[in-house]
Amino acid sequence: MEALLTAHSALAAYDGLAPHYDEFTAGYAYERWLDALEELAREHGLSGRRLFDVACGTGKSFLPMVERGYEVMACDLSPEMVARAGAKLPGDGAEVFVADMRELPVVGEFDLVTCLDDAVNYLTTAAELRAALCGFARNLRPGGLAVFDANTLATYRTSFARDAALDRDGAFFCWRGEAQPDAGPGALASAWIEVFAAGADGRWDRSRTRHLQRHHPRGEVEAALSAAGLVLLAARGQATGARIDSEPDEERHSKTVYVAQRPA
């Protein structure tokens, strides 16, 4: 029952945000971020160009990889996000479908599985994290790699504990954080995103979505990887400017990036 409630919460959040997601994330440096992650994966033995992108959103996390010659399969929990990603497909080289990362079907044996930009933080229990990582493992070829990120305590103590506003391309976004500035390991944190945008009739429409996330301590992630039969190869810290530092710091970096492998 708890997993169903969590899935419904994430589904409602992203179905509601989907029409404005690209504007909301327009400032994200996806190209640079994917450059850094691809280099990190290659440093740890990535070979081949078959990619499964989990929680793909509107496609920003995989479309640059299609342009680089990867054969891509992608999925997202939200049908609205999947529809927008599908509309951007360049033709051959990619396929996108609806799926919950907690119950991933086996769709192939991939060289690389990615799950980026906050996605695993919508898994609000250790059991859900294990289920997702098991799904990654089922879709990796022997020797294949999984690369994913998780928000640090610094993110929940700052971004999720304050309010912010953004005006972009005819839409006005209000971020209202509900977390505590002293949030601890494993804490739940939520934020509301309100969007004010001009409708087809010229009037302003208002939408509101709640985003509930959980901090996943490194020890918990390592235990979930082990339960999924994956070997942790590296944990890195994401710094400003899509830079990856060698040692993650929960109080300095915004995310921890994990690289894991299905044993050959």
List the helices and strands and how they pair.
Blueprint (H helix, E strand, L loop, with lengths): L1 H16 L3 H4 L5 H14 L6 E5 L8 H5 L3 E6 L2 H10 L5 E5 L11 E6 L10 H13 L1 E12 L1 H5 L5 E6 L2 E7 L10 E11 L5 E11 L3 H10 L3 E9 L3 E3 L9 E7 L3
Parallel strand pairs: 1-2, 1-4, 2-3, 4-5
Antiparallel strand pairs: 5-12, 6-7, 7-8, 8-9, 10-11, 10-12
* Mean pLDDT level: 94
* Total individual domains: 2
What low-confidence regions span 5 or more consecutive residues with pLDDT below 50?
A: 1-5
Overall shape: it is globular
How would you characterize this protein structure?
The structure is a single chain. The protein has 264 residues and is of the alpha/beta class. It has two domains: 2-151 and 215-261, Vaccinia Virus protein VP39 (Rossmann fold); 155-213, S-adenosyl-L-methionine-dependent methyltransferases (N-terminal domain of TfIIb), CATH 2.20.25.110. It contains eight helices and twelve strands. The model is unreliable at 1-5 (pLDDT under 50).
What key phrases describe this protein's structure?
single chain; 264 residues; alpha/beta; Rossmann fold; N-terminal domain of TfIIb; 2 domains; 8-stranded mixed sheet; 4-stranded antiparallel sheet; 8 helices; 29% helix; globular; disordered N terminus
In short:
The protein has 264 residues and is an alpha/beta fold. It has helices at 2-17, 21-24, 30-43, 63-67, 79-88, 126-138, 153-157, 218-227, and strands at residues 50-54, 71-76, 94-98, 110-115, 140-151, 163-168, 171-177, 188-198, 204-214, 231-239, 243-245, 255-261.
